[in-house]
Design goal:
heterodimer; A: alpha+beta; five-stranded antiparallel β-sheet; 5 strands; about 10% strand; disordered C terminus; B: alpha+beta; Beta-Lactamase
């Protein structure tokens, strides 16, 4: 940083400190953290955010700044590790780098690092890290082939680390997430042999004994997860639709339908749909077609290893059908001509709004 | 076909460019199979590509079935954008041009090269649909080796897309 600019920013840090000392509020903490961040001192910014969060635990702004500071620190450490790995590769560095990638949700990169480590050393620890990366990838993508690879890597990790509970714990978690209850029960029993008398594990074993369904094999469970995109018991985990948001939907759909050449605008969530444009049976047919498109596209994105669907666009003699998909809902627009950029932005707003449309159905 | 696919596969951001016949059999630019292997994370790129080609053709058929109740024709172009990349399928006659785009790159940015390739492909298919007796004797030998020859044979044995349409 330019020395003059640094001097100026340091003055601002002192000012922010004085303001914080005079009145400790989430805003004054956030301002001080921001001044530290401007100086490039992410560690100090994080310390200020953490201090602020201890006093004001509900502050969303401080939590956001803390996350950002952690991200900057993580990126810095990743760069250091990559440099170090290029000069003197060793297991501790690979492990830390792969864990940082997993922590930041970059499962593809975590997998790459774990694979490089596995190629280099071929020991049980590297195989364990590789299995962790593949499991994280499956949980993110929910594709069957990703799941099969994760289980194959876990088998190999168990073979290379025979008296280690970690691969079994991960297998138990994975089987539980996909609902392969019979396999989960077997894994819990194997874990109990390693750690007999552990109360939590025994309770888990008892509950799995009640749920065990031998017909739901790992392969069948993976197929089911790929088809639905939901993990076992995922329906119960779905966040409740936001009732207040539905009043924003109609105006948004009306604005979409008012674009030049727009034929129909839709909002889809579960089995319900709001349709702006067509009426009666045509509206029903349009909603059914959009829902079918969404379902098949979500499944195919997972099968192809592309992960979760974000958007879909179909073009043909009918015009353009654009769908923006959220995790649980979607917005769609059928236009005669190409899609307007403003309409695209509005569609993206609709997707992921997770609104309650039960009482407002077309 | 190779001449059409190869330039497209070298465009920055394109992970894979391939051609799929109506029955799901892939015809691809040499060396591109590893793009699919990376995508699905498996080792055997070509086997993965075959599976993916089948999935793509199946998906296109499902899309057509889904929009049929609206009296819409089958989509000419389908773009699927997902967390780990995008898939563009462009129907050219009876074949489908498949392009996998890197994550982080908008498929719309590649519309021009993809449409240009589709247009070139259309011309090649029209040429192939000409009666084989009318072709000069040297044209078969100068055709790209391997996959293109398979493509030519397919056309000869099954008839051209245009001829099939007329027949139906």
């Amino acid at each position: 940083m330019n020395p003059l600019r640094k001097l100026f920013t340091e003055g601002k840090v002192r000012e922010a400190r004085r303001r914080l000392a005079a009145e400790a509020t989430p805003l004054s903490y956030a301002q001080l953290a921001q001044e530290h961040a401007k100086l490039g001192d992410a560690r100090a910014a994080l310390a200020v955010c953490e201090e602020g969060l201890r006093a004001f635990s509900g502050s969303a702004e401080l939590a956001r700044l803390a996350d950002r500071a952690r991200g900057i620190l993580r990126e810095g450490r990743m760069a250091e590790l990559k440099l170090e790995l290029s000069q003197a590769p060793r297991p501790a560095l690979w492990r830390e780098l792969a864990e940082l990638y997993l922590e930041s949700g970059q499962v593809g990169k975590a997998e790459e690092q774990a694979q490089a480590w596995l190629r280099h050393s071929g020991d049980g620890e590297s195989q364990w890290m590789f299995a962790r990366a593949l499991c994280a990838r499956f949980l993110a993508d929910r594709g069957r082939s990703a799941g099969q690879r994760a289980f194959a890597a876990l088998d190999e990790a168990e073979r290379r680390l025979p008296r280690d509970a970690r691969p079994l714990e991960l297998r138990l978690e994975l089987c539980g997430r996909i609902g392969a209850t019979a396999d989960a029960l077997r894994t819990a029993a194997a874990l109990l042999e390693l750690r007999p008398g552990e109360p939590e594990l025994e309770a888990r074993h008892r509950s799995l004994q009640e749920q065990s369904d031998p017909a739901r094999t790992i392969d069948r469970a993976l197929r089911e997860v790929e088809r639905s995109g939901l993990l076992w018991g995922g329906e119960a985990e779905e966040p409740a639709p936001a009732a207040g948001r539905s009043r924003y939907l109609r105006p948004a759909l009306q604005r979409l339908a008012a674009f030049d050449g727009a034929q129909a605008a839709l909002y889809l969530r579960g089995a319900t749909a709001l349709v702006q444009g067509p009426r009666g049976a045509t509206a029903e047919r349009t909603a059914r077609a959009a829902r079918a498109l969404l379902l098949t596209s979500r499944t195919n994105a997972r099968r192809l290893g592309l992960g979760s669907l974000m958007s879909l666009r179909l073009e043909g003699s009918f015009g353009t059908l654009s769908v923006a998909a959220g995790e649980l809902d979607a917005g769609a627009l059928w236009t005669r001509g190409p899609l307007h950029a403003e309409a695209e932005a509005l569609l993206l707003e609709l997707a992921g709004s997770n609104a309650d449309v039960e009482g407002d159905r077309s | 076909m190779k001449e059409v696919l190869e330039p497209l596969s070298h465009v920055a951001g394109v992970r894979l460019a391939a051609l799929i016949l109506a029955d799901g059999v892939p015809v691809l630019a040499p060396g591109q199979a590893r793009g699919m292997a990376n995508l699905r994370g498996a080792g055997n790129g070509f086997a993965e590509l075959e599976a993916a080609a089948g999935l793509c053709v199946g998906w296109m058929a499902e899309l057509s079935r889904s929009v049929a109740p609206l009296s819409w024709d089958a989509p000419e172009r389908a773009v699927l954008r997902a967390a780990r990349g995008s898939l563009v399928l462009r129907r050219v006659g009876d074949v489908v041009l498949l392009v996998v785009v890197e994550a982080g790159l908008a498929p719309e940015e590649l519309r021009l090269p993809i449409e240009a390739a589709a247009a070139r492909l259309g011309r090649v298919l029209r040429d192939l649909s000409q009666p084989q007796t009318a072709l000069p004797a040297t044209s078969t030998s100068s055709a790209p080796a391997g996959v293109s020859k398979v493509m030519s044979n397919q056309r000869v044995s099954n008839g051209s897309p245009a001829a099939r349409e007329t027949g139906n």
